[in-house]
Design goal:
The complex is a heterodimer of chains A (about 170) and B (about 210). By secondary structure, chain A is mainly α. Helix content of chain A is about 65%, strand content about 5%. Chain A has seven helices and two strands; from the N terminus they run βαβαααααα. In chain A, α3 runs antiparallel to α4 and α5 runs antiparallel to α6. By secondary structure, chain B is α/β, with parallel strands linked by helices. Chain B has eight helices and nine strands. In chain B, strands 3-2-4-5-6 form a five-stranded parallel beta sheet, sandwiched between helices. A two-stranded antiparallel ribbon of chain B has the order 7-8. In chain B, a hairpin with a 4-residue loop joins β7 and β8. In chain B, α3 packs parallel to α4. Chains A and B meet through β1, α1, β2, α2 and α4 of A and β1, α2, α7, β7 and β9 of B.
Chain lengths: ~170, ~210
């Protein structure tokens, strides 16, 4: 069988520069990051939970403002606003999942996924976005954390019904 | 430099920094000194970017640079890694979902760059997507490692250690350039080199 260009495979072996830079010889036992520093880094992540409330409020406000702007602008800049909503809901999800606020994570993820397939011209889809934003604020205001409490199930149902009915 | 040319003997035999453990020492694990490392965090959410940056500094990383999306990251990479030197960015921690230029596009731009100090740059993808599809997609685009959010300091440290201790050879074919997607049992020992005969590649894999 003739070899063609598409069959050509090249393999590059390089000196391990990172080990040298980390103060180790190229070959030798695996290097580790000082476990004490890793513990301190994790403690920093844990300490930052204090700022969670302010941070999540900030993102929810930006999310709500983007949604208001979307409704105000009509078709103009619609895609740009939806992209912002997509990114903010992703931020909500990232932030809340870090500190185990499972219910908010659920809604952040749900809204982000909905934005991927949203039809911006369908009013019904607008209802679904609004339902997400409403329950996110309720979750925030009532400081609901678990996604399996009675109240959480109730809020999840609100969104599920909106999606079933209007999508 | 567009090709990975063999290095000079002087570079190949560069001595480790003072105080580093010798190869002949026992199998005891050695501590990584990240004081000379420069890590670029590409993350659109300032809270997470600041959190990761502080974690890295706690772990001893000397310099942490941040970029809010792929576009600014690419500019920084191009300016800092245009030529290979001690001030290069050493590792990129890359968020997947971002406005402007996302992780997918930036990774592609890195792996198709003409400069060696950019296209061989280790990239750790950091994503909230936990699906197998994301892992496969990021690997197919040339990611070295994938970390699933939420981030923990332990997981971040493990991935950085892995990138430092177990660099995989890079493979180039018609549709892919990036770290070999097959994990190696042993690290490569020798000078920088490029092989392109199928038999050489097979032998290398068997040896490693």
């Amino acid at each position: 069988m003739n070899k063609t260009n598409s069959d050509k495979v090249e393999m590059y072996h390089r000196i391990n520069r990172l080990r040298l830079k980390a103060g180790l010889p190229v070959h030798g036992p695996a290097g580790v990051i000082d476990p004490k520093t890793v513990k301190k880094a994790q403690a920093h992540i844990d300490d930052k939970e204090e700022e969670y409330t302010d941070e999540v409020r900030d993102v929810l406000e930006k999310l709500s403002e983007s949604w208001k702007a979307f409704k105000k602008d009509g078709k103009q800049n619609a895609e740009q606003w939806i992209e912002k909503i997509y990114n903010y809901s992703n931020n909500v999800k990232d932030l809340t999942s870090m500190y185990d606020h499972d219910l908010m994570t659920h809604f952040g993820l749900s809204l982000r996924e909905f934005c991927e397939d949203i039809d911006i011209e369908r009013e019904e889809h607008h209802v679904i976005v609004q339902a997400h934003i409403d329950v996110m604020w309720v979750t925030y205001e009532q400081q609901l954390r678990s996604d399996s409490s009675e109240k959480a199930e109730e809020l999840k149902k609100v969104v599920a019904i909106a999606i079933d009915k209007y999508s | 430099m567009t090709e990975d040319e063999p290095q000079t003997d002087a570079e190949t035999e560069k001595e480790p920094k003072t105080g580093a453990k010798d190869t002949s020492e026992s199998q005891a694990t050695s501590q990584l000194d990240l004081g000379d490392f420069k890590v670029l965090i590409v993350e659109d959410f300032p809270f997470i970017a600041a959190l990761v940056a502080t974690c890295l500094r706690e772990m001893g990383v000397g310099k942490v640079v941040t970029a809010e999306h792929g576009k600014t990251a690419l500019t920084k990479i191009q300016s800092m890694n245009q030529f290979e030197n001690d001030n290069n960015i050493d590792v990129v921690i890359l968020d997947w979902l971002m406005p402007e230029m996302d992780g997918r596009q930036l990774l592609k731009a890195i792996r198709t760059h003409k400069s060696d100090s950019i296209r061989f740059l280790p990239v750790i993808v950091c994503s909230a997507y936990t699906s197998e599809t994301l892992v496969k997609e990021s690997r197919d685009l040339g990611a070295n490692e994938v970390v699933v959010k939420p981030i923990s300091a332990g997981e971040l440290a493990r991935r950085i250690q892995y990138v430092i201790n177990n660099p995989r050879p890079y493979v180039k074919n018609q549709s892919f350039f990036g770290p070999d997607r097959r994990r190696q049992k042993r690290p490569f020992e020798g000078k920088d080199k490029r092989v392109n005969k199928p038999q050489d590649i097979k032998n290398n894999h068997e040896q490693n």
